[in-house]
Amino acid sequence: MPKITPEALRADTDFIDRLTELRRDIHRHPETAFEEFRTSDIVAQRLTDMGIEIHRGLGGTGVVGTLKGNRPGQRVIALRADMDALHIEEQTGLPYASEVPGKMHACGHDGHTTMLLGAAELLAADPDFAGTVHFIFQPAEEGLGGARVMIEDGLFDLFPCDAVYGVHNAPKEPLGRVQTRTGSFMAAGDTWEVIFEGSGGHGAMPHMATDPTIPAGQFIASLAQIVSRQVPAADAAVISVGHIDAGDYGSPNIIPSRVVVRGTARSYRAPIRDTLERGIGAFAESCAAPYGVTARLIYTRRYPPLVNTAEEVQQAVAAATEVVGEDMVDPEAPRAGGSEDFSFMLEKVPGAYVMIGNGDGPDAVFVHTPKYDFNDALIPFGVSYWTNLVAKELGS
């Protein structure tokens, strides 16, 4: 297969204009988790028009396209893009801004979908490779684990593969810069909730109450000690509080009987994940007991750590180097604190996940904010990366 560069793609203005129009159309019509009906219809129709065999229904709205190369080969790889949007009111003021109140593509999945469709179109037009490519268009990456659901629905039973690859845009990074690493690249993302319960009482007579606010406050103020004193310094972990609920705004003279504290826990290894869960529960109970209050932990393991495998990282780095040059590829990037449900796929199949710079420098608007927008200038870089990766994996 010939190497495809971003420069060559930009020269094909009709191709890039069509992809840009597609990306902005998807952006204008965002759909959140497991409701990507219009988006999956577009994906399925475009793949069908390319002559690519499709399968629908995994994860509800998931679409898988299968393309066999013209040359004999047994190796099978999968390329994955996510399709869902977020529950955010868009504030970009762009002419193609979201037309759906309270929803927007604030993470760039509109761009991810577009780049993979662009690569599929080029590969279908000239399938000069040995083996098979599955194009996985996944729903519900944002918090609801669409990758896990697709797997539970039989993704890798119906479409077994030797390697799986994923891409995400990276705002603030130079346009086209590729970052990845072998081993843990993104964190496990867990949600925890501690419920402190007492009797509550009159705020003027606390001696007649069992007050859960005191142990809850001590718990919140000292929570970071779990990481600083129970997690080895060579490891990394984060525990953060994101929600506190107690009492009623209209009754500040009442000591509440219940305080709920919720947050997130991030880690990169299974033993550290266990430490965080155990530590949060034990610490909450130790804060509560002296005050005659009970503390109950609900710990939900959501996304596992995203762990790249060495051979597939080498392939991804080689493909990226051909696209942007060695100086623009970081194969030992720092681990990211965010989580990604592509991690479920990597638990089943070897693979690699990379971040590609979305440009705009340190002042760029970050993902998951109401003024974020995917940079259309990234489209030719993403398409080039995907096609060159197929060439590396299946070119011989």
Automatic annotation (TrEMBL):
Residue span(s) of domain Peptidase M20 dimerisation: 191-268
Cofactor details (free text): The Mn(2+) ion enhances activity.
GO molecular function: hydrolase activity; metal ion binding
Swiss-Prot/TrEMBL cofactor(s): Mn(2+)
Keyword Manganese attached: yes
InterPro entries to which the protein is assigned, alphabetical: Amidohydrolase, Bact_exopeptidase_dim_dom, Peptidase_M20, Peptidase_M20_dimer
Binding site for Mn(2+): C107, H109, E142, H168, H368
Keywords, ordered alphabetically: Hydrolase, Manganese, Metal-binding
Keyword Transcription applies: no
Descriptive protein name: Hippurate hydrolase
Organism: Salipiger thiooxidans
